[in-house]
Design a protein that fits this description.
Blueprint (H helix, E strand, L loop, with lengths): L26 E5 L6 E5 L3 H4 L5 E5 L1 E3 L3 E5 L5 E9 L4 E7 L9 E6 L2 E7 L9 E6 L4 H8 L16 H4 L7 E4 L11 H9 L3 E7 L3 H4 L15 E5 L1 H12 L4 E4 L1 H8 L11 E5 L14 E5 L6 H10 L1 H13 L10 E4 L1
Parallel strand pairs: 1-17, 3-12, 3-14, 4-11, 14-16
Antiparallel strand pairs: 1-2, 5-6, 6-7, 7-10, 8-9, 9-10, 12-13, 13-15, 16-17
Length: 345
């Protein structure tokens, strides 16, 4: 598969800049995985599409306010996107503009009398631009939460708002560490969960801290040459046990979001069973791929030429995926992180 195969015309007006007024009010395009036939629903109709025997997997990662705006020693503006906490007060980060920021520079982030300083420890890592920042002083996490902004994806071309702190976070988020939301999960609210639970759907969670790897652009023409960066994940013994039991019983495992898929498919042993573990994954799923765990997928509509689009193509099939996206475009579905959803099963 070539990168050019994964391009499609996406008018800017089709990209959702804001979420639906109510989480489950998003549109839901249902696609039959075998035939590719599409039908139109609303996300709150999901209980009609699931079976009481189904098991639903969610990603419980929580988004950090990981975007900081500050100044260089020269007084010039600087933006930092924190990617991962390493040890002490040291973080991996991306700087913008970062090319002329030299090692040893002190960056200053301040607002409303709160001051946070960070020392640049490294030169840019080739091909990624990653830098190491060491924050100075005490109370770093508290200051980050007061100074940091929600890191909306670049295609949501607007400043973040106070409301994004709630709407760009799933209602089941609890393990802080992501720099982007597992956006397929944004459509759930608590009443919808209660309805699914009452009808018998078993719900489990995994953790994959969404980072730069998920949104890293593909820069090679041949898809299989692309290398993903690592992201941290955790699958508990309880979750692994329940998923394995469901698979043995022939029940469907419905996975919410491509991040969950990456965690699950990274943890299958040679016997085809899911293994409980903490780890790092750089798995890149592209056609053809034999999915070991996933029977059904809930996902949003992804940007052209993205690794996320590649994965959904592997699950549904390229021709059926392109036909479904064409249906969504012609039916005024909203695309990307704050947009509408697909259910493929």
């Amino acid at each position: 598969m070539k990168l050019s195969d994964l391009d499609y015309p996406l008018p800017k007006e089709k990209i959702a800049f804001f979420p639906a007024e109510e989480r489950p009010a998003a549109k839901l395009l249902c696609v039959d995985r075998a035939s590719g036939v599409c039908s139109h629903k609303i996300f709150r109709d999901l209980p009609e599409l699931l079976k009481p025997t189904d098991l639903l997997v969610l990603n419980n990662t929580k988004v950090l306010p990981a975007r900081l705006f500050g100044k260089k020693p020269t007084g010039g503006k600087i933006e930092a996107l924190l990617l991962k906490e390493l040890d002490g007060n040291t973080w991996e980060a991306l700087l913008k503009p970062g090319g002329r920021v030299i090692d040893g520079s002190i960056l200053t982030f301040s607002q409303n009398g709160i001051i946070l300083e960070a020392k640049v420890l490294s030169s840019p890592v080739p091909d990624t631009g990653k830098r190491l920042l060491q924050f100075q002083g005490a109370g770093i996490k508290e200051k980050l939460h007061k100074l940091g902004h929600i890191p909306l994806p670049p295609y949501i071309n607007r400043p973040d708002q106070l409301s994004d702190q709630e709407t760009y976070q799933t209602v089941f988020a609890k393990e802080e560490g992501a720099v982007a939301a597992p956006t397929a999960g944004l459509h759930f609210d608590k009443p919808l969960f209660e309805k699914l639970t009452r009808m018998g759907v078993e719900i489990v969670d995994v953790t994959l801290h969404v980072s730069y790897g998920t949104f890293q652009p593909i820069t090679v023409e041949h898809i299989e040459d692309h290398k993903m960066f690592e992201e941290e994940y955790e699958i508990s013994a309880e979750t692994a046990c329940k998923i394995n039991a469901a698979k043995r019983a022939g029940r469907r495992v419905i996975v919410c979001g491509t991040t969950c898929v990456r965690a699950l498919e990274s943890s299958v042993n040679q016997a085809g069973e899911l293994v409980a573990q903490n780890g790092k994954t750089s798995i890149f799923i592209y056609p053809p791929y034999d999915f070991k765990i996933v029977d059904g997928l809930i996902t949003n509509f992804h940007m052209p030429k993205s690794t996320l689009l590649v994965m959904v193509s592997a699950f549904l099939g390229y021709d059926k995926l392109m036909a479904a996206y064409n249906t969504a475009l012609n039916s005024n579905y909203r695309f990307a992180s704050y947009g509408d959803a697909m259910f493929i099963a």
